[in-house]
Amino acid sequence: MIAREWKCRVPEAHNKGFTDYLYETGIKDSYATPGFLGAQIFRRSLTAKIELTLITYWDNLESIKAFAGDDISQARLYPEDGAYELEPDLSVQHYEVIEHQIAPELRG
After folding, report:
1. Is 6 exposed, middle or buried (0-12, 13-18, 19+ CB in 10 A)?
2. Taxonomically, which superkingdom (predicted)?
């Protein structure tokens, strides 16, 4: 399993709107791509901004290429990102997942 990490920052005022937009763009497109295994979104407060980290999980690098294009190190951005005053990282990181467990009481 491969984890793909992308980060961005938005003004606090756009926190909810951008998170909803992220679900409608990146998350929705990820789910529609064969080989997508799941996602997590992390949020932390910065001074007057929110930082969001999106981790998506994929079965292999070819699946990521189907989502992101041939250069999987580049972030996939969307046309309306600017409306949220988005400060995106333009590159992403990939990690081989070597441990992945969820406590039995938390499984769905």
Report:
1. buried
2. Bacteria
